[in-house]
Predict the structure.
Amino acid sequence: MIATKYIAAYAVFTLASAVSAQETLSSADARHLLVRTGFAPTQAEVAALQGKSPEVAVDTIIARAKTAKPQFAPPAFIGQPAPVMDRLLKSQEERQAMRQQQLREGADIKAWWLREMVESPAPLAERMTLFWHNHFATSQQKVVSSRGMWNQHQLLRAHALGNFKTLVHGVAKDPAMLVYLDGANSRKDAPNENFAREVMELFVLGEASQGGGYSEQDIKEAARAFTGWSVERDDFSYRFRPNIHDTAAKTVLGKTGNFTGEQVIDILLEQPQAARFVVDKLWREFVSPTPDAKEVERVAKHLRDSGMDTSVALRELLLSDAFWATPNRGSLIKSPIDLVVGTVRQFDFNYTDALPFAIKSAQLGQNLLVPPNVKGWPGHTEWIDATTLLERKRFTEQLFRAVELQSESKMAPIEMR
């Protein structure tokens, strides 16, 4: 019994003082911080943070990410005239050719993004963009607009470490999201509930059974507020159509009024659960698979007090005792993107084309721009099974074997097949 008490006390001490017992970061601490806030770091990146205080290191990483700009020019199709709309194409062959073009342009976006992830001096910006891509999951397979997917990506990137309220409002009117969740055709005589349901369950509050605090009636009422939110097909832009918007009174989460969609979103974001939900997801992304309820509440308060500034919540998490605790280090399973990008970054592989890395990530279970469903990729242990584990091993073997061959024959930069 005494031994058990000592063990428990030691565990608590370890959790509470993993880094607080020292004033500066060791090499292992710096690597842990860089792995969680980016992808596998180089030794030079680790050395740059070693010896700094946790506060200085975290603030430096966040500040760099908030001001980061893309390193490379957009895919070539972005600067070209918009394609002829599908509805104007006369034959099945023309429509099929258009879909093939959309797939090629989607591949261009993936290759561009993978290259940004590998080369970015501020990988936290890329990681947060990827986090929101999974949070606000949207698939090109249904949207069928590479420009729409590109524009949504830029929206997520612009607000990756900004205000969560602004991001939710932006995504709600994003044409790709409106098409993906069938909101573009929602009208007062036939409101579509998909977006109203997902904005509560997946985007802002979480599942009703897990503290979301809303009912099926709340979803139905909210859906009426989003009627008339549509997409201008000629240029794939947002358009409000007042003639099909429901202007009658609605009751959402106990409040009644002639609410617009914007006002309903504000009502959702006012709920204390909204901050908890965001912090809970950030915890699972950056700290461990099992959030601590008390810590989540503490960080959620900071998030609410900041007006829902995501960077404030992330800073609190990265400076928490739980983040630095020994039991939580190594507790997260790398996503395919983590593995692929991290390996290329860490070992500074030279390459000619980033698209094969996107293809390999898809083979491992994470196909950018094509999440499995509106819930996104479930992550953690779902990343690993007998097949993907073997494929991960093959991927690293391929890379290092390519380097060996390159060295032996003095070839050009490696290419994956």
User: Anything to note?
Assistant: The longest helix spans residues 92-119.
